[in-house]
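User: Sequence recovery, please. Input:
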């Protein structure tokens, strides 16, 4: 269940980028990258690979159904994840009505358990006290890594420019404005993600890499993003997440991508969980 909940925000930066004059200030660059137009909806197959030298490689496959709510009724997006693999988890499904990162209201979430033929609401405490699924306990990617963070929550600074694979990038350091309080707040969910360095393409403003650091400035995660053009919109094709302190790696691949299919808001209901993935294939 924990991995399903973690995935809920991961399509939020599927976007359409236009050529633009790049601003000089770090905040302006982050704001332009963050506010790029998103797709209206998306259906895709998500394949996870969990790699560590001391463990056998594991995989998980999901069908994702996602809709951009554009703030309607206070929701940022709605998403369904149907489990396809591993076989003993097939049929388990997650539904999330998800609020913006800076909202003071909680998300609304449900999970369908096929062996019980039952859909139950996920209480917020379930996230705090749930155990990782055995198969996916080594996943490096969580919602806090994948969900775009509003630029106004952080302090930004251009710390340099670099070239990678023939592309020129701004390197922008982002630190939460409440950073000093985080060090003493054991209950803060962002406590281990104190600083991020964003690699933003100077020409397109696409975010192609994020390096995460803890409150002691120790590297925690290196996340690299590969985009693909779908009908003039740039969406995620692959994400490679590496723990720089170990040999662990999580690879997330998107395939069978369909965008702007006209999904009705009524699709995102408990009934859809119980009816299964067939209608979206």
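Assistant: Recovered sequence (281 residues):
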């Amino acid at each position: 269940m924990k991995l399903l909940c973690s995935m809920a925000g991961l399509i939020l930066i599927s976007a359409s980028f236009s050529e633009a004059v790049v601003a000089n200030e770090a905040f302006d660059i982050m704001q332009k990258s963050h506010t790029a137009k998103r797709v209206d909806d998306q259906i895709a197959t998500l394949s996870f690979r969990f790699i560590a030298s001391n463990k056998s490689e594991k995989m998980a496959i999901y069908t994702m159904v996602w809709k951009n709510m554009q703030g309607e009724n206070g929701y940022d997006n709605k998403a369904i994840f149907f489990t396809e693999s591993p076989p003993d988890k097939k049929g388990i499904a997650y539904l999330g009505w998800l609020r913006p990162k800076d909202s003071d209201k909680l998300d609304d979430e449900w999970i369908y358990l096929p062996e019980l033929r039952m859909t139950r609401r996920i209480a917020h405490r379930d996230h705090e006290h749930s155990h990782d699924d055995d198969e996916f306990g080594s996943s490096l990617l969580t919602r806090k890594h994948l969900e775009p963070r509003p630029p106004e929550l952080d302090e930004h600074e251009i710390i340099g420019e670099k070239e990678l694979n023939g592309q020129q990038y701004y390197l922008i350091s982002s630190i939460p404005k409440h950073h000093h309080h985080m060090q003493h707040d054991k209950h803060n969910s962002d406590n281990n993600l104190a600083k991020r360095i964003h690699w933003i393409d100077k020409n397109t403003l696409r975010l192609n890499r994020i390096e995460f650091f803890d409150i002691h400035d120790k590297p925690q995660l290196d996340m690299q993003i590969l985009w693909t053009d779908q009908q003039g919109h740039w969406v995620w094709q692959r994400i490679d997440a590496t723990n720089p302190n170990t040999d662990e790696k999580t690879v997330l691949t998107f395939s069978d991508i369909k965008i702007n299919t006209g999904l009705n808001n009524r699709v995102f209901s408990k009934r859809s969980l119980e009816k299964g993935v067939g209608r979206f294939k």
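DSSP finds six helices and 15 strands in the chain.
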